[in-house]
Amino acid sequence: MKLLALTTSTRRSGAAVLDDERLLAAATHADETSHAERLFAIADEALGRAGLGRADLEAVACDVGPGSFTGVRVALASAQAVAFALGRPLVGVESLRAMAGAAFGEAAVGDATACAALLDARRGETFLAIYDAHLAPLLAPRHVRNELVAAELGRAAAGRALAVAGEHARVLGLEPVAGLRLVTTPATDLPDAAWLGRLALAALRHETRPGTAPVEAVYLRPPDAKPMPP
Amino acid sequence: MRILGIESSCDETAAAVVDELGHVYSDVVRSQVAAHAPYAGVVPEIACRDHLRAVGPVVERALADAGLGLADVDGIAVTRRPGLVGAVLVGVQFAKGLAWALDKPLVGVDHLLGHLLAVFLRYPDEGVPRAAPAFPFVGLLVSGGHTALYRCDGPAPPDVHELGGTRDDAAGEAYDKLAKLLGLGYPGGPVVDRLAHAGDAARAPVSLPAPMAHGLEFSFSGLKSAVARHVARAGKPADEAAAADLCAAVQGALVATLVKKTLAAAAREGVPRVVLAGGVAANRGLRACMREACEARGLELHVPPVRSCTDNAAMIAYAGALRLARGERDGYDIGPERRTELERLTKKGRGPRAQSPTTIIR
Ligand SMILES: Nc1ncnc2c1ncn2[C@@H]1O[C@H](COP(=O)(O)OP(=O)(O)OP(=O)(O)O)[C@@H](O)[C@H]1O
Ligand SMILES: [Mg+2]
């Protein structure tokens, strides 16, 4: 099954084209201020290198967050439209899950049986989730104050080795925390379109009516809005 | 040529199918008013989230109502500016996704130009056919975010020249703020309009002069402070009848200004045609007074149906259809922009008066 995967939830956007498990081509764009303008160019770049046309696509996968609110909407609005126009299923994959999937899939976790994924949530906070080797969530995605992340991860590790994906872990200086094994590959630093695509294809194999439920963005935080004083 | 239009610049998610003659095949508008009402104004992040959830179903509905599949449309038009950037973005990405997937022509449209061209839309259920205005015309654009007079020499952005705009609030914004002062809820325009209809300005406890500004410019802040002072002194209206009388006074003042400046613009430009546009053009008082004044001066008045005054995608599809008919087309690299591409003359706030860059030789 030929699938296009898109991510724009972080500073690095990406497009990947897969045929079942096989990655055919991928392209990225690293300027967060122009993801909307560049997304279809990198999609075309990936498709072109894969030797496929837009009409060959049989499914679309999209990073649904958490991440930058606007960033999440750039890819999700685009992916919704492409899936609708082509009459193909759309599969949403959480950014943090794609990162953990990459960590396990690239065998970067060593002997750890669980992997935490971290993204910068701005405002002094971190988006955080922990998954087991089957990518079932042990700790559902949430936002945590930066200074509480080490304690949260230490508690979750509970003595066992815990892999930690995400460049944000290095920003937080989590290196010396006992039991944590920092994973540092490009596909685990930030959500990676190829891994997003692989997880989406796995989900498609298990779904009975793929692409029928609406795909929702995962913001984790409510919108900033103060009610009018009475 | 049937064009799918998409609009998401503020608090309405809309999609429509229209042809280059303005025939409307479908027109779907999903309003977010209820989501923003508790905040007495549009909350950007709430708007963006809602657009993302709504845009797919709204587009699907517009195609279904027109009896078309996406493959049948000849192009995709989308509001690209001006508006809340994050809200515009959702419509733009969705439109680009549709166009990209099926390799359909894509055009971005200026929302204000859409408003000014709404008068050309033709709905199948309208009954009596309306004559379309010829160019040039003087357009009074009065919406929630913008208020200005334009000389329109044609339907493309370079044909549209601002003659004067607001120095502070837009007319719709003024309605909304006045309604808030009087405790009438949000959005204020329709409520004030309804109450004013039942009220009598002569019975209002305060007399409100028509707000004045230099030349063809507008300023509504004086009216707002006059009402604020009155409320501070005498309190909010005690009952519906008192509110109605005050609203009649407010509406009378606003409408008098809008009519007076529009007539002055038509006289100055020597243009015998006036077009109303934007959400406030739905106002019954404005429509009636403008009609009367134009008749008295022998000016043609063109007023769009109420549904095409407030935000809709039919006007966007039509403006886009004209762009496509001119052979124009945008790439997949277009993004949302905060400001209009139409020529702007009046700068907000105080400061020197603008000089028109436009010289018209007649
Ligand atoms: N009957 C009415 N009388 C007066 N004002 C009205 C009426 N109906 C709607 N409005 C006003 O129209 C405005 C909404 O118009 P519109 O949808 O054109 O604006 P917008 O799209 O929010 O702004 P813009 O087009 O400038 O971006 C609101 O301020 C509302 O109060
Ligand atoms: Mg509008």
The CATH topology of the largest domain in chain B: Nucleotidyltransferase, domain 5
What is the CATH fold-level name of the largest domain in chain A?
A: Nucleotidyltransferase, domain 5
Question: Largest beta sheet of chain A, briefly?
Answer: 5 strands, mixed
Number of domains of chain B: 2
Q: What is the element string of chain A, with H for helices and E for strands?
A: EEEHEHEHEEEHEHEHH
The largest sheet of chain B, given as strand count, sense and whether it forms a barrel, is: 5 strands, mixed
Do you know the CATH architecture of the largest domain in chain B?
Answer: 2-Layer Sandwich
Q: Assembly type of the shown chains?
A: heterodimer
Global outline of chain A: globular
Task: Provide the structure class of chain B.
Answer: alpha/beta
Q: Output the structural class of chain A.
A: alpha/beta
Residue stretches of chain B low in confidence (pLDDT < 50, at least 5 long) are 357-362
DSSP helix fraction of chain B: 25-40%
How large is the share of residues in beta strands of chain B? Answer: 15-25%
Give the terminus-to-terminus CA distance of chain B: 36 Å
Order of helices and strands of chain B: EEEHHEHEHEEEHHHHEHEH
Distance between the termini of chain A: 56 Å
CATH architecture of the largest domain in chain A: 2-Layer Sandwich
